[in-house]
Amino acid sequence: MFTGDNDSSVTKRLLVGQPYGPHFYVKKVECINHLLRNMDGHLRLLMKNCTYSVNDREHLKKNVQRFRQAVYGAINYWKEQDILSFPMKVKKIKYDLINTASHIFDHHVNCR
């Protein structure tokens, strides 16, 4: 097992190169720190994207910490729910992560 994020090119290299042999399965484990760092990078790119208004980019810049808190909170909340199966937890986390931007920018139609 190794820890990475969704943009990891290491996964492909390990699967294609098979450094441990053809019968050794390599599994990637997602890490919340890698996820947050990756998200921060994407948010910084959005803040530099001139197709969005200056107001929108400034609003995003002021709310980067709220994005981090929302993502971290959603993952930890659903991780602690013992009544749910792992696939259901993943589904709930995914829904909350997709809704994060809407929630932070006060569009609460899809909030639970």
Describe the structure.
This protein is mainly alpha-helical. The chain has 2 domains: 1-30, no CATH class; 32-112, no CATH class. It is built from 5 helices and 2 strands; from the N terminus they run βαβαααα. The protein has helices at 10-17, 32-48, 54-62, 64-79, 86-104, and strands at residues 2-4, 28-30. Strands 1-2 form a two-stranded parallel ribbon. The two termini are 34 Å apart. The model has no long low-confidence stretch (mean pLDDT 83).
List segments where confidence is low: pLDDT < 50 over at least 5 consecutive residues.
none
Overall pLDDT level = 83
Structural class designation: mainly alpha
Number of domains: 2
What's the SSE blueprint?
Elements: E1 2-4, H1 10-17, E2 28-30, H2 32-48, H3 54-62, H4 64-79, H5 86-104
Parallel strand pairs: 1-2
Helix pairs in contact: 2-3, 2-4, 4-5
Name some characteristics of this structure:
112 residues; 2 domains
Structure in a nutshell:
By secondary structure, the protein is mainly α.
